[in-house]
Amino acid sequence: MFDDFKKEMAKEFEMTDIGLMSYYLKIEVKQRDDGIFVSQEAYAKEVLKNFNMKKCNPINIPLEVEKKLSRHIKECPIDQTLFKSLVGSLSYWSELLTAK
Asked: Considering the entire predicted model, what is its pTM?
């Protein structure tokens, strides 16, 4: 049935059969006899690598509990482009997590 569908589609569109899907929109797809499994592990590792965080240790909360925040941070200037890129990557990742 699927082969017939592919043949009909190939009559209308230029197509190349590249085999089973392994990645789609940053989601790894593993197709086995016992089911189809998806994972975002590769994307998570890519994000960590891109932001030099592969060797960071996980914590339960993202900020010190009693830390006072200030608009005038002198000890660590912030790269706004890098920050926006990180937020964008995390936003995309969260959309992938909640997609149904």
From this structure: 0.55
Token pair 């010190």 is found at 64
Helical (H) or strand (E) element with 32: strand 27-32
Rounded distance, CA 69 to CA 71, Å?
Answer: 7
Q: Do residues 41 and 28 make contact, with C-beta atoms less than 8 angstroms apart?
A: yes
Distance between CA atoms of 72 and 95, rounded to whole angstroms? 33
Question: Both tokens of residue 15?
Answer: 């197509």
Handedness of CA 48, 54, 56, 61 (dihedral sign): positive
Query: Tokens at residue 22, please?
Result: 């392994």
Span 39-78, pLDDT tens digits? 888 888 888 898 888 888 887 777 777 877 777 766 667 7
Q: Going edge to edge, which strands form the sheet with 23-24?
A: 23-24, 27-32, 35-39
